[in-house]
Amino acid sequence: MKKGYIGTPKNTTIKTKSKQITFFATVLLTIGSTIGAGIFIKNSSILGNVHNSLLLAISCWVITGIACLMMGLALVEVCSAKGLDQSLGIVGWVKKYTNEYLYKAFRNFYGFLYLPFLICAIAFFSIQFLAEGLNWNIPWWTAVLLVFAIVTWFTFTSAVSSRSGDLQNKVFVLFKFFPIVIAAVIGFVYVGMHHGSMTPLNPHGDSGSTPLLDKINPAVGVIASIPAILFAYNGFFNPASEIDNMKKPQSAGSALGLGIAIITFIYIIIALSLMLFSNSGKLDQDNGNAWGGIKGLNIFIEVIQVIIAVTILSCINGTFMTFGKYYQGLIARDEAVFSKKIKAKFNNESSKTLVGATYGYVLMMAVLLFVTIVGLFFVNNLSSNSPIATAKAQGIFSFSDLMSNWCALFIFLGIAASIIGMILNRKTKKIDNTKAKGAIVGGWVAVIVIGISVLYTLVSVFYNIALVVYYKVDGDYASNSDFTTNIVTVVLTLVTLIFFAFVMFGLPLIKTKIDNKKKKVH
């Protein structure tokens, strides 16, 4: 059986790699698998949530960074369980530490929602930066075709061949840290050139035509920003699955902690720099005029935006390197739709990976069609993240942004469920694992932060609908277009929540009932 294939017995993979991952390599792996698109995409919305308060915006990054640091300590113990299928990642943690129903729920989420929607969102983020860098008023159909091309390319390169994925990753690394360095220094250079003087951010900025829950108070905006920042930390937990492959597994907690601390420091520096440079909190060529009309500065920023677009593709490449194997495992275990018929195509190891990648590709095409239709017909520029694109393209970009937040929130909810199972196991001792220092304290901190974020999100969905209706009845809208934008936003958020909940928790129940009826018949 091929090494790394989902479902491979644990001892067949670990013996060949148990001495290969050093402490330093784990730190680099944590940093490399995390830093990507999130810091460039989410900083602007976070600044808006806290009403342009520089202090609160930085606090958002610090709070979430500490929570992820604590989470890393807990995951050391979670991943030390004997018999844990590390190749399943988060889904394997849920399977080991919770129950069969939650396992099926998060298996559905990861395979049918998280992977396709996350990849789709990141691809659209890349196109967004490309359009802004080229000053291109991109039509919606061009954006969709480019995403189609990106998904197709990575499916049949990185998802099929780990060698191709590794080669492409090395190419992307050459681009990755250049925009990060520029973003980290550009704001401080700006302040230095103006001898410490700058136009301060307005701490009481416009909160929108209708003060939704995240706009009522900057402090509430801090809580509202957590899901967006969790997206920026998405992937930090991947190295936790490699603990058994470390030379010194006992140092895993320190390595993860150091990696997350470095990530948090980098994020804070970049966020602060971008906020000093631009009131929007993002790299924007229009801000070049504020530098006194320095020749070529706007062109330089446009080039950086194009490089960021390429950098974002590195996140997609890394995800696709496990993409085909995950679906291959679902099919092999008869846990995918039509898996029994598809499994007949498993002729050899190479064909298994290709079949798994193709299965995931079909799901990706369905998700791309879904996002396109919703963005075109039901979303009317819910955000101002893409001033270059046409209105219809902005609708697609906005919906992708919304889906990425939901994906991040639910994936961390799965982590929280696994951590709670680990904490309970300290008493039941049903699972044989290695007790990690700081795991319980870190686990509770992580669970509380994630719990507050999830609770806020659920409350805000219904609160915002009631608030929008109230403002309409009370006649507080300046125009019908303001009402339309707000009502579409809140209703779409509710529909998305129902959709996610149905796929995760509804489908397993329906499947169980169907299977029980079949057993009675036979």
What features would you highlight for this structure?
522 residues; mainly alpha; globular
What is the C-alpha radius of gyration, as a whole number of Å? 23 Å
State the separation between the terminal residues, measured CA to CA: 35 Å
Major sheet: none
- List SSEs in N-to-C order: HHHHHHHHHHHHHHHHH
Strand % is under 5%
Tally the helices: what do you get?
Answer: 17
Question: Mean pLDDT across all residues, rounded?
Answer: 80
- Could you say which overall geometry the principal axes of the C-alpha atoms support? globular
Which structural class do the helices and strands define? mainly alpha
Query: What percent of the residues sit in helical stretches (DSSP H or I)?
Result: over 70%
Low-confidence stretches: 1-19, 197-209, 382-386
Number of strands: 0
